[in-house]
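Build the 3D complex.
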Amino acid sequence: MSEERGPRRDPASLDPGAKAELDRAFEQLYRAHLRDVYSYSYYRVGNHHDAEDLTEQAFLQAYRHFERARAESDGRPLRPWLIRIAHNLASNYHRDRSRRPQTPLENADPIPARHGTEDLVEGREELREVIANLDHLPDDRREALIMRFALGMDNREIARALGRSDGATKVLLHRAIKQLGEEMAS
Amino acid sequence: MSSPEWHEPGETVDVERLLSDALRPIEPPESLSGRLEDTFSSITQAAAEELTDWAEELTESELQSLKDPRNWVRPVVAVTAGGLATGALVVLEMRRRGRSRARHGVRHLAGEIRSRL
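Done.
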C-alpha cells in the first residue's frame, strides 16, 4: 500500500460526522496495535527512547493517511500497513545515522520468558545468543523474523508489510531460520 | 508459532523455540500511550478550532463589507463601466446596420440603372 499515490485528504477536512467515525476507527486500530508497532520499533532500533519516538511518528503518519488506507484495504487488516510505516521509519532512522543502532540489538535485554528459576539463568544466556546472532543476519531476514516471532504475523501479513509476494516471504523466512540455526551451531 | 510452514518437521524446532522466547512482544510504557492520546486530542482540537475561527472571520468580514460605504465604490464602478460598455456596443451595432443598409441601397440603385440601359 503505497503512501505516495493519490491526493491526501486531511482527516480534519471531513464533515464532523464522518470525522468522528474515522477517529473512532483509528482509535480502535491504535489500541489494537500499539504494542505491535512499539515492539517492532524497539527490535529495530534497540532502545526504548527511539522506539517511543518511532512509534509516535508511525501513528501520526497512519492518522494522516488512515482514510485512504481504510478505503484501499477493502476490509483486509491494517496491521501490515502500520508495520510497514514503522518499517520505513526505522529504515530512515538507520539511514540518517548511517550506522547500526545506537544500542546494538545484542545489547538489548531479552524479555524474560516464563521459565522455572533454574532455567531462567541458563535460558537468558541462550536468548542473548539468539539475539546476538539475529543481529548478524541481513536486514530483510532479521525484519521478517521480528514480524513473525515478536508480532506473530503470518506469512501473508509479513509479505504485505515487506511489499513481497507470499512465496518470496516464505523463502525469506525459511532462509532466515536456517541461517540463524547455522550461526548458532557454529 | 504452532504451525511452522516453511521447513521440514524437526529441522529448526529449537531455533524457533528460542526465537519465540527471545523475541517477545514488548509492552509500550504508559507514558507513551498518554503522550500519543494527548497528541491526537490536540490535533483534533486544533483542527476544529481553526475551522471555527475561519468560519467566524469569514462571516464578520462579509458583514463588514456590506455595512461599510467605502466598499460600495467598487460595485458602483463595475455597474457603471458595464452600462457604458453595453451602450457603446449598441451604438456600434446601430452604425454597422446603418452602413449595411446604405451599401445595400447603392447596389440596388446600380442594378436598376443597369436593367434600364
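Chain B touches chain A at residues 1, 5-7, 12, 14-16, 18-29, 31-33, 35-36, 39-40, 43-44, 47-48, 50-51 (CB under 8 Å).
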